[in-house]
Amino acid sequence: MLTRKQYELLMFIQEKLLETGVSPSFEEMKEALSLKSKSGIHRLITGLEERNFIRRLPHRARALEVLKLPENAESAGLGSRAGFSPTIINNEEYTPPSGGNFADGSVESIPLPLYGKIAAGTPIEALRDQSTPVSIPVSMLGGGEHYALEVEGDSMIDAGILDGDTVIIQRCDNAETGAIVVALIDDNEVTLKRLRKKGDSIALEPANKSYETRIFGPDRVKVQGRLAGLMRRY
Question: Is 193 a catalytic residue?
Fold first, then answer.
């Protein structure tokens, strides 16, 4: 079941797509729903995603796909669920506020998708389960899209990254040498390591002397994000 604001946002997006073929901006959505902050729109979009009304498209920055409409959408002239065709929309970048409270429509924390465990030792395939979001202080985030991963292993302990930590990753496909990145190896293994570029080679460097640096050709490694923050439970 959708909240009133979630329903209003979903209907507004669909109405604009039917009228103009172009998705509304975050500013337009904020004005339409009489919210004071774009962070409120971000929360509503996240809620719609968790309820499977929309989803974020992988490898496409700020792209959403409308998967379904509520049962009563047909009576509103916005299409029925049975004959609904998913529509891809591209939204402008959301920049989290530095603080705020729930009273004025802004938030001090936002949910991020927790994609599962990532090895900080022997590479493992990263899980893509977005059913368990984690709440992250907005002060930890900059611009762009972010996601969270749980660290498994001890190869980055000298960089202060321990087994069981939750790392916040800013999605990107390139990073400077020396950055700690999520690296996809041979399209099926994912690991958290420090990136070193040496000529045409790419080195994935651990922060633990018990592990060896691994060196690959440039076509074997794809950067999927860089470390933006870390959370730890004691």
Answer: yes
80 is catalytic: no
Q: Which of 37, 117, 193, 201 is catalytic?
A: 193
**Of residues 131, 135, 155, 222, which has the active-site annotation?**
155
Give the three-state DSSP class for 59.
coil
Q: What is the pTM of this model?
A: 0.54
Task: Report how far residue 225's alpha carbon sits from residue 55's, in angstroms, rounded to the nearest whole number.
Answer: 20
Strands 87-90 and 114-119, by their bridges, are unpaired
Q: Taking residues 51-74, what's their average pLDDT? A: 64
CB neighbour list of residue 58: distance below 8 Å, 6 or more residues apart: none
pLDDT in tens, 78-103: 443 333 444 433 443 333 333 333 33
Dihedral sign from CA coordinates of 93, 51, 113, 64: negative
pLDDT band at 51 (very low <50, low <70, confident <90, very high): confident
In the numeric block, the tokens 């496909």 are attached to 173
